[in-house]
Amino acid sequence: MTDPLHTDLLALAQEAARRAGELLRDGRPADLGVAATKSSPIDVVTEMDIAAEKLITGFLAERRPDDGFLGEEGAATEGSSGIRWVIDPLDGTVNYLYGLPTWAVSIAAEQDGETVVGVVTAPQRGETYSAVRGRGAHATGSWDGERELRCRPAPPLDQALVATGFNYVTEVRARQADIARHMVPLVRDIRRSGSAAVDLCDVAAGRLDGYYERGLHPWDLAAGDLIAREAGALTGGRPAERPSRELTVAGTPGVFEPLQRLLEDLGAWHD
Ligand code: IPD
Ligand code: CA
Ligand code: CA
Ligand code: CA
Fold first, then answer.
1. pLDDT single digits (tens) 151-191
2. Of the residues 40, 87, 91, 216, which should be mutated to test ligand 1's pocket, given the most ligand atoms within 8 Å of the CB?
């Protein structure tokens, strides 16, 4: 059944993402630098991450003052409406800093703790991906009109294109690189786009067969996880545990379980 509240939340998320995407694309200073660092010297934040989060939370709070917020750049309010917005104002900051095109704005709406709406816009790809729980996933941009997203029919794991990412914390990265080194000869190839939200949307769009990453935060994956699942992908962490903030795994049915098993065999669950 179509819930009119979800339709309204979708429209608001799409408009907030469009505005933030435009700000990031058109307002990027030529001399953009690092404003601060977080968990390690390579975990950077720019003035544009902060400006985009301000724009999104301002836009949404003006229209829905009773909602809660969780944003990477500090938004954290409870709200009283049962709706909470989970926001990554700029996913792929390092790409953005270097002028690489793969970065995105990610906005999800949770209702009583369950993600009901997810929107990811990638302005330099010219694409926006959206999903509403139970209503499928759709994209606009590189296609004529709106396209329904469906993940790809599964190849055997040794023919699967698998993306990953590396956490900013130095010790975690070293471990992740080790897992990837062992995985490379066992799959078609590995990709590292630099944006977890885009990786999940690429699984949804059939451009990747699978994706895994350790240590993502709720804002990295809230929208992309719903988009991938509504496109028919399976997502989760350890078998029978979903969602896991520890190890995120997504894949087309048929790749998801073999990928989970391979990660298990490679010891990816352990520190
Ligand atoms: C990062 C990106 C990257 C992933 C990191 C994330 P940020 O988010 O999604 O692909 O590997 O784990 O933290 O900091 O650019 O928003
Ligand atoms: Ca960041
Ligand atoms: Ca992120
Ligand atoms: Ca971010």
1. 999 999 999 999 999 989 888 888 899 999 999 999 999 99
2. 91
Rounded CA gap, 105 and 37, in Å? 20
Q: Within 80-147, where are the H helices?
A: 93-98
Measured in Å, residue 90 CA sits from the centre of ligand 3 at 7
Q: What are the extents of the domains in the chain?
A: 4-148, 157-265
- Indicate which ligand has the atom closest to the C-alpha of 222: 3
Q: Write the CATH number of the domain with boundaries 157-265.
A: 3.40.190.80
What are the residues facing 115 on neighbouring strands? Answer: 110
Distance CA(176)–CA(189), nearest Å, equals: 16
CATH class of this structure's domain 4-148:
alpha beta
- ipTM > 0.85 for the complex: yes
pTM of the model: 0.96
Give the position, in ligand 1's atom list, of the atom nearest the Cα of 91: 16
